[in-house]
Amino acid sequence: MTPDREEAPDSPQWTGWPDDDARRYRDAGFWAGATFGDLLRDWAVRHGERTALVDGDRRWTYRQLDHAADRIAGGLHRLGLRRGDRVIVQLPNRAEFVETWFGLQRLGAVPVHAMPGHRRAEIVHLAALSGAAGYVVADRHTGFDYRRLAHEVLDARRTADEPLRHVVVVGDPVDSGFTRYAELPTDPDGDHVDAGPSPGDLALLLLSGGTTGMPKLIPRTHDDYAYNARVGGEVCGLGPDDVYLAVLPIAFNFTLACPGVLGTLMAGGTVVVAPNPSPATAFRLIQRERVTFTALNPPLVPYWFSEYADSRPDLSSLRFVQVGSARLADDLARRFTPTLGVRLQQVYGMAEGLINYTRLDDPDDLVCTTQGRPGSPADEVRVVDPGDGRPVAAGEPGELLTRGPYTLRGYYRGDAAAAASFTADGFYRTGDLVRQLPSGHLNVVGRVKDQINRGGEKIAATEVEGHLLAHPAVRQAALVGVPDEQWGEAPVAVLVCTQPRPAAAELVAFLRGRGLATYKLPDRVEYVDAMPLTAVGKIDKKALAARLAPAAVTTGPDA
């Protein structure tokens, strides 16, 4: 067996890269051959007393963060966790997430990235699928008691072949019997941790970001995930003077490594943790910490516009703001810089691998109408017909397939359905419909499965949502297909709007005025105060469809 295969084993657990590809990525310098524990040690030597992490009034130098990782690794080892053990980490945005993550990396244990919004069904599923031995939670967050959830998960896994053995609580464990994070067992003579991981070992398990079904587990190695963060930092030109504000959940791939927390630390910069995603909180921290870049999802953009108009904060320290995790409507993108006075960078990618960025020197038209081009010169993309898999003509929409030095080759403990997500030669089927420009930039059209079939006419939901978001009163929009006796499916627009809400007839007239085809107009408009969201912050169309399905469709675009 070759060293490459030993470091990234082709096992029933997960599929690593073929030997030839692994060797090629390593020889080309994409994979640096260092673990995250090693990287943090190196940063502590090089950057020492520079500020690495800020959470409220608390600050960590690089050296202090390195010592914290040692303490957590030693404490978890003495608790009974070992190299290769999977540990679910479900923490909100706070410094303890970063400490715990690096402590697990130094131990060689594998963090499983749960979102704060996950509850019993999701956590039990993740514990079973990963075979988790440990679980790290907050005591309470936004009024929810995670200690109670931990007991429910423990009970559900008690008789399993791979039971959950250890729960650590950041905060007050009260009388739960769990271990207090601040009191992890230590050895006054120094904790002795087993030999650490290898660069090709499993480093973390991310969650697939689909809006239906339970998430799949995405295996990422030290080699490939470090490159994921490093190439993002190179694209963004990060240096030691950069300050990153983590607004979205840190457990989210976009926030952690695109380039995010890890890319900033690699550059010797500073990471500031936002305790909530409120624009007012973000603006306060940007001013106080002189933040140079941050990352948002599209639903936050209108709220930034509104808060900026009200408070007129000083955003002069910002070099750019990333927007990603879902398609940003072109009209919102065009308003971004004129409204906020800050450069926009669109980011499109997936936790499974490929990340695309508009470049900071791209012309405005590309920045506002595309979702970027691949970050790495080794990223391979194909745009194919979703039906027969043949390449489409240049500029035509098709499904995006990708392969590269940080794109997975198989899900962790993936089933047959997950295996169908890959071609025989290792390309990942993203399920996204894109157009590729001659420049290499990708324009995201929608999802292969996010289409509404109205009497045989196919409606791409993303396109209509973009037009709806151009209306000045619309803050969030989702187009959902519901069963209809006459048409098979009927498109229903679900909107979050400012007051007064525009009438449905006004919206239809607005869409007609933008040249939208009649068959694409929504048959009905529903108004909500807030969208249901998945745990990773995407609009939950499955929940919307379930809510809308019982209602009868009584009007149409020709009415």
UniProtKB/TrEMBL annotation:
Name of the featured protein: (2,3-dihydroxybenzoyl)adenylate synthase
SUPFAM superfamilies per record: Acetyl-CoA synthetase-like
InterPro entries: AMP-bd_C, AMP-bd_C_sf, AMP-binding_CS, AMP-dep_synth/lig_dom, ATP-dep_AMP-bd_enzyme
PANTHER family, per database record: LONG-CHAIN-FATTY-ACID--COA LIGASE, NONRIBOSOMAL PEPTIDE SYNTHASE PES1 (EUROFUNG)-RELATED
Residues annotated as domain AMP-binding enzyme C-terminal: 463-538
Residue intervals of the AMP-dependent synthetase/ligase domain: 41-412
Matches recorded under CDD domains: 23DHB-AMP_lg
Pfam families registered for this protein in UniProt: AMP-binding, AMP-binding_C
TM region positions: none
Disordered, as annotated region: 1-20
